[in-house]
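In response to the reviewer comment on reproducibility (Comment 2.3), we provide here a single inverse folding case reported in full, input and output, so that an independent group could reproduce the run without further information from us. The structure tokens appear first.
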């Protein structure tokens, strides 16, 4: 009587575990695969720097995409004017940095720089949030529940907002000064034996920390607070929540304001990153934003975060390995994921 080969049983066990992981955590599988393949294609030091830089770029994209994901996932509102709020936030932040607070941006001291950066970011969020409030009341509210009309009116609203930006600040490119303490990079010598010394851009590290912080706060609010529970319940059964005495319309308005404010925050950060802004920069970024929310799964905050990381990483990896393919890398990633998982990486219309 022949005995079963232990190696065959072990291989079957690992195969089953891998298939289960692929089914339960596809975002982690794809992220790990991308990191591994990139590591094989370049030297360790370059891989490490590009990975950190790509994650920082991804978190900035997450700041911009999270607002659109939030409004779609919690309100089922498809807001194609989201790019205009990104541009608005970038211009408001630039005005703050070049205006009365400009004296604090030229200082090499991080403390003085924060006196300019923090008010600029808060101003970008506040202005984008207020405009978002008016936009929701005037444009979005009449078309709740009708995605076709939402597409039409938000595209029209985007055109109007961009034209107002051009009327206010002009159609030309505007330089944005990056605060002195966030310019350049810092060097870590002989940090890891295999990798050696590292050169990390300061602003990317700040963007990475800010993006992770915002992601954590969003998950906490949605998953752990009474406000998040009420909003998610309103999405599932609006009438039942209203019967309990809660004003779900006011909650949805707050969600839309928050989504607009996040777009403004992302725009202000992206303006400092690129150090130049235009009225149409938000429209150009909308391609990446839409790819991210499709990758992650429509309405998923977690999916949006991992989708943004993947987009940021693949842009830098492909840009380093074969620059000519960098322009199509993002769309190629989206096509590949949709062929594998048409519903996206984390397919929920809830968070």
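Designed residues, in position order:
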């Amino acid at each position: 009587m022949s005995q079963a080969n232990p190696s065959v049983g072990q291989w079957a066990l690992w195969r089953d575990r891998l298939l289960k992981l692929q089914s339960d955590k596809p975002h982690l599988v794809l992220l790990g695969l991308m990191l591994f393949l990139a590591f094989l294609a370049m030297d360790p030091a370059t891989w490490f720097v590009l990975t950190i830089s790509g994650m920082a770029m991804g978190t900035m994209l997450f700041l911009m995409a999270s607002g659109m994901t939030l409004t779609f996932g919690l309100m089922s509102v498809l807001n194609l004017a989201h790019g205009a709020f990104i541009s608005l936030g970038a211009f408001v932040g630039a005005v703050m940095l070049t205006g009365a607070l400009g004296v604090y941006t030229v200082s090499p001291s991080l403390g003085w720089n924060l006196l300019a950066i923090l008010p600029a970011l808060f101003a970008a969020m506040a202005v984008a949030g207020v405009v978002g409030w008016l936009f929701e009341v005037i444009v979005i509210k009449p078309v709740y529940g009708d995605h076709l009309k939402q597409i039409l009116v938000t595209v029209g609203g985007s055109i109007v907002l961009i034209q107002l930006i051009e009327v206010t600040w002009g159609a030309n490119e505007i330089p944005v000064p990056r605060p002195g303490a966030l310019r350049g990079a810092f060097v870590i010598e002989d940090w890891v034996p295999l990798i050696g010394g590292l050169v990390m851009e300061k602003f990317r590290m700040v963007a990475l920390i800010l993006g992770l912080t915002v992601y954590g706060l969003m998950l906490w609010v949605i998953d752990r607070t009474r406000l998040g529970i009420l909003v998610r319940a309103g999405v599932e059964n609006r009438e039942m929540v209203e019967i309990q005495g809660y004003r779900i319309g006011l909650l949805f308005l707050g969600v839309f304001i928050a989504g607009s404010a996040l777009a403004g925050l992302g725009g202000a950060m992206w303006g400092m990153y690129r150090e130049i802004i235009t009225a149409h920069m938000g429209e150009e970024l909308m391609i990446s934003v839409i790819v991210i929310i499709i990758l992650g799964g429509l309405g998923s905050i977690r999916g949006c975060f991992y989708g943004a990381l993947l987009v940021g990483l693949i842009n830098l990896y492909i840009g380093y390995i074969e620059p000519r393919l960098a322009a199509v890398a993002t769309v190629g990633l989206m096509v590949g994921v949709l062929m594998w998982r048409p519903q996206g990486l984390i397919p929920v219309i809830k968070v």
